[in-house]
């Protein structure tokens, strides 16, 4: 009888441990970068009024978010912070794959932009070290700035969260020339990001 009780207790503990692991935030660390076979969320194109506030890039250079850092270029934009160990490495991984797919187009036809949602911690020097760590090439900018300015931009794009640990994973594709944005929630595949960039580029060619 005692043996049966011990077996039952052990099995119950194992089930509880498995459930705890299933909901643990650290699980995101093992999440792979989405592959091209995964389904992507549909996206819609819209004109957005985004505050053109002053920010800093990883080199400490000042510029305004829309008029200087994005300008009239095609850009893929996402939001992370350097101390994140869950969702952000996945978004960095997606952009690394997009960087590889763009090849020589990066910095010429298309730019990548990562805006830190933790600007107090992510000063330019820290962003530069992070960019070097993930082997970001010229044409991929990492932005920070005054917390109020960053939060204002995040709120305008509806990606602001009072708890940075629960910020929504999101990628935007923007045509700075036309002021058009499309939002893809979650972790889009590389092909999805490239498809949206191609769609915006094709629309430009028809103008």
Instruction: Record the strand order, biggest sheet.
Output: 1-8-7-4-5-6-2-3
Helix and strand element order: HEEEHEHEHEHEEH
Strand content: 15-25%
CATH class membership: Alpha Beta
Look at the structure and give the mean pLDDT.
84
Approximate shape = globular
The CATH architecture can be named as: 3-Layer(aba) Sandwich
Q: Unreliable segments (pLDDT under 50, ≥5 consecutive)? A: 2-31
Record field, number of beta strands: 8
Kindly summarize this structure in a few lines.
This protein is an alpha+beta fold and 207 residues long.
Note down, in words, how this protein is organized.
By secondary structure, the chain is an alpha+beta fold. The chain has a single domain, classed as Glutaredoxin. 38% of the residues lie in helices and 20% in strands. The protein contains six helices and eight strands, in the order H-E-E-E-H-E-H-E-H-E-H-E-E-H. Strands 1-8-7-4-5-6-2-3 form an eight-stranded mixed sheet.
What secondary-structure arrangement, pairings included, does this model have?
Layout: H1 2-22, E1 45-47, E2 54-57, E3 62-64, H2 65-70, E4 74-80, H3 87-102, E5 110-116, H4 124-133, E6 140-144, H5 147-156, E7 170-175, E8 180-185, H6 190-205
Helix pairs in contact: 3-6
């Amino acid at each position: 009888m005692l043996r049966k009780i011990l077996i039952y207790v052990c099995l119950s503990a194992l089930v509880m441990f498995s459930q705890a692991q299933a909901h643990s935030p650290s699980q995101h660390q093992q999440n792979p970068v989405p592959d091209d076979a995964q389904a992507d969320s549909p996206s819609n194109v819209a004109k957005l009024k985004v505050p053109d506030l002053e920010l800093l890039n990883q080199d400490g250079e000042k510029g305004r978010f829309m008029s200087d850092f994005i300008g009239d270029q095609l850009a893929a934009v996402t939001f992370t912070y350097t101390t994140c160990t869950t969702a952000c490495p996945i978004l960095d991984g997606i952009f690394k794959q997009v960087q590889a797919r763009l090849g020589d187009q990066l910095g010429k036809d298309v730019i990548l932009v990562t805006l830190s949602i933790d600007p107090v911690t992510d000063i330019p020097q820290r962003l530069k070290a992070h960019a070097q760590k993930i082997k970001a090439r010229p044409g991929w900018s990492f932005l920070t700035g005054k917390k109020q300015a960053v939060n204002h931009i995040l709120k305008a794009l509806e990606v602001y969260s009072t708890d940075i640990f629960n910020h929504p994973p999101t990628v935007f594709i923007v045509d700075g020339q036309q002021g058009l944005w499309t939002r893809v929630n979650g972790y889009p595949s590389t092909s999805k990001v490239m498809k949206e960039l191609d769609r915006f580029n094709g629309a430009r060619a028809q103008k």
